Amino acid sequence: MNRRYFIKSGSIALASFGVMASAPSFLKRTLASTFDIANGGRRKTLIAIFQRGAVDGLNVVVPFGEHNYFDLRPSIAIPKPNGGAEAAINLDGYFGLHPSLAAFKPLWDSKRLAIVHASGSPDNTRSHFDAQDYMESGTPGVKSTADGWLNRYLQSKADPQKSLFRAVSMTQNMPRAMQGKASTLAISNLADFNIRAGQSSATVQGGFEAMYDQTVNDALRGTGKETFAAINYLKQVNPGQYKPENGATYPQTPFGNALRQTAQLIKAGVGLEVAFADIGGWDTHVNEGNQQGQLSNLLRQFSNAIAALHTDLGQRMDDVVILTMSEFGRTVKENGNRGTDHGHANAMFIVGNSVRGGKVYGDWPGLKNEQLYEGRDLALTTDFRDVFGEIAKKHLGATNMNSVFPGYAGNESKFRGVLG
Question: What is the pTM of this model?
Fold first, then answer.
């Protein structure tokens, strides 16, 4: 696809929405400069997904090749692969997927899904609040970091398109990872992306528009006008009428809706480079379940939504990478309530057409007692910053990694090749 063809096809796509004539200037810039960014390539997009609450990575990506796994989890272990619907899904003869992650198996088979096991934060905290803060700030053990790692990436790399939608979190509040000096948006629902003041909404919006018109600062005046143009553009695109492609069906849940709207922003060509979504409920201290139960139900929603996003985007996934993360893992041994407590290392998923998948990356530390972290947890062998850094550098084109992950030298060789 050449540059002229892309601009033409992008214009046709906008025309199909019926909004080409009223498209805001930031969007026209996006179309005009798409092939002038990232060393002449198309704009790349990262979709970061946070599993809040510390997911049990050992029941997500099951080390069924170790008998210690079954010895330490008599009630909640996932059965070895046997071809049944309630057993682990065999990946490589040693690791398997939880049966509720069946939607991931085609991605694995087509080598579009990679797994990084025994990964996470080197800090030993078992506090949800601190661990999430460290992972999102990208500075484990340092509480004074002012901004998030995704925002620092945005600061480190100029955006010639100056898109208002360069970084969007599909959440109610701005996540820590995206807080900082670079411009970002938090939009829980595209249909509600507006200045709202009850029955006075129109009056308030008109007042703000007038304020921007009267400002003596030309740059501020232009920014204000483009903001309102973006609001009106999204109204005309009509998020409520969006139809997923390729037979994709998203779960009717807040998380499914967040990924569905992320796909819409990508297809609308608004210059989305960094997207964020999260899903909670992973703190399974009591009655975690094994092939069925609360963990199983969450994993089914989680994987079905991500698989639907991949299906919906189709060939656009050539330029998109999906990365999942959680603040820490769970204890190797189940507790007295048929659940698991706060642990250490965990598993991460990387999805995309450019991913060299079909492989579990990272060094597996083992589950024997002497191999466990503090005698109870899966030991860490991969710092999460090595995974984040590989994607920031190879996919997004970051060049100043010291500014993205201050004070961390990284291990560039560990994941060389995970992205094609």
Answer: 0.85
